[in-house]
Amino acid sequence: MLNIIVNGCFGRMGQELQEEINSREDLTLVAGIDRTTEDTAFPVYQSLAEVNEKADVVIDFSHESSVATLVDQCVQKQLPVVIATTGLSEETKQKLNEASRTIPLFYSANMSLGINVLIEALQKVTPALEEDFNIEIVEKHHNKKKDAPSGTALLLADSINNVSQTKKEYVFGREGKENENPLNEMGIHAVRGGTIPGEHTVIYAGNDEVLEFKHTALSRGIFANGALKAAEFIQKKRSRNVLNERITTIKR
Ligand SMILES: NC(=O)C1=CN([C@@H]2O[C@H](COP(=O)(O)OP(=O)(O)OC[C@H]3O[C@@H](n4cnc5c(N)ncnc54)[C@H](OP(=O)(O)O)[C@@H]3O)[C@@H](O)[C@H]2O)C=CC1
Ligand SMILES: O=C(O)C1=N[C@H](C(=O)O)C[C@H](O)C1
């Protein structure tokens, strides 16, 4: 049995997690944290410091403004934590790195299996193409998303840059740029509209040939399930400190 606290429990992802946890007998939502309270089957608090329920792990899908304090409180309570919030500042990312030395901490801008497999594919093809192909990333999300570009677009860009001979400068949109589009740049473009759960396309454009890799999230269930798998993984490692491999994705 895994006892879970969800930070951001009333948000889109918080509600998705509630559904997933309630559908499984091996998981219990012992408490939620959010800015407001509602009538729920589980207790809800405004901060982890107020939570007295016994928990094995915290899962966070909230907002940058909430993450640093949450991580400090996880360290104080020695609670493993899965951080899925994107749009984190450099200071917050630094805090995650430091905290991961004392508590099990898993961070990824994208909890889906598909994006994590895509990263491996991109790292294989990039060395063969980077000298002759421009690389551009286009991401599409729902119109309520607070950060742009998406954390996943940055994660994909960093994964490409990590294996590139020449480190590429990120260009966010191309307004006002002369149309040279040199090979040492990588364009990252954000589209916002409707209810799109998330789509990422990486385009390798060469002379007379184009390769495109596209991942489409058809529901938020893939992110909730990935976060729950991460929670189970770090809980098993609780007996020792782990600097999880995904934490490396925040070293930009
Ligand atoms: N890593 C991954 O795989 C995924 C990551 N995400 C990321 O997760 C985050 C949440 O996404 P989503 O659920 O769509 O966003 P929502 O805005 O729907 O939900 C966020 C929730 O967190 C609450 N919140 C905001 N600030 C605080 C705070 N200071 N303390 C406690 N709660 C707070 C919000 O309250 P209020 O409504 O009052 O602002 C809201 O209830 C985003 O950063 C998103 O990019 C999303 C999907 C997948
Ligand atoms: O806000 C979202 O919805 C999503 N955010 C994450 C991101 O910024 O990459 C992951 C996913 O694409 C959905």
Share of helix among residues? 25-40%
Q: How far apart lie the N and C ends?
A: 36 Å
Element string (H = helix, E = strand): EHEEEHEHEHEHEEEEH
Q: Using the 3D structure, state the CATH architecture of the largest domain.
A: 3-Layer(aba) Sandwich
Task: Please report which band the strand proportion falls in: under 5%, 5-15%, 15-25%, 25-35%, 35-45% or over 45%.
Answer: 15-25%
Structural class: alpha/beta
Small ligands present: NADPH dihydro-nicotinamide-adenine-dinucleotide phosphate, the ligand O=C(O)C1=N[C@H](C(=O)O)C[C@H](O)C1
What report would you give on this structure?
The protein is of the alpha/beta class. It folds into two domains: 2-111 and 220-250, Rossmann fold (3-Layer(aba) Sandwich); 113-216, 2-Layer Sandwich (Dihydrodipicolinate Reductase, domain 2). The protein is built from six helices and eleven strands. The strands form two sheets. Strands 3-2-1-4-5-6 form a six-stranded parallel β-sheet, with helices on both faces. It has a five-stranded mixed β-sheet with strand order 8-9-7-10-11, covered by helices on one side. It binds NADPH dihydro-nicotinamide-adenine-dinucleotide phosphate (NDP) and the ligand O=C(O)C1=N[C@H](C(=O)O)C[C@H](O)C1. The ligand O=C(O)C1=N[C@H](C(=O)O)C[C@H](O)C1 binds next to helix 5. Homotetramer.
